[in-house]
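Record 1 of the preview.
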Amino acid sequence: MTTAAEPVAVRHALRFEGVTAYYGANKVITNVDMAVPEHEVTAIIGPSGAGKSTLLRCVNRMNDLIPAFRMDGKIWFGDYDLYAPGSDPTQIRYQIGMVFQRPNPFSKSIYDNVAFGPRINGFNGRLDDIVEESLRAAALWEEVKDRLKESGLTLSGGQQQRLCIARALAVQPSVILMDEPCSALDPIATLAIEELMQELKKRYTIVIVTHNMQQAGRVSDKTALLMPDEHRVAHLVEFDETSRMFTNPTDERTEAYITGRIG
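->
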């Protein structure tokens, strides 16, 4: 007689508990609770002005650079409170990498773009190895291995975005945040980035902000929908498996947004 296997506990890379964000006196996000599983792609969707990028930038403390910003609640990175007193935002950003909407390679060589983070972080191993490994992980090595001394700015837009991903990977993060990473790219480059995400999630946890419903449906395992209320304060409307949300959402606002009736 066989017995049912015990369910496997899901490990969460990130947990949001009551996250509420302000710019000055203006509340922009309120009371977000959700848990992001390890080694999955989680998409954050919603209309413009729904606080998607603000929520993403709470995770790696990028909003700290805005003087008027304030956050209540907690964000856990494993068992670590990212906003605990004495926590170091710079160290957090090594563990939680970021890829921005527009490719932003440094005006340095391809090699030096990837080597930049390890160098300033005191890496004392073989830089050649980590540069190659990172470029391979970003599916760029074969295209640039004979051009490493050339400026990263000579690459195409899609290649530049993969170079920025390689730069983020070089400091060996656990989580990669992507803020509209394909919005400035053509369809072929977009497909390359989407295929890359599927490979990267085997080793990393990915959280992506996207305005593209089709992209969210293609690349993500889970989706979070943020929607603003009448006061333009964003709420988490629904967070679930992407396949379920896109075919059988529990909230009528989710169905209305995904089908294009609102937003």
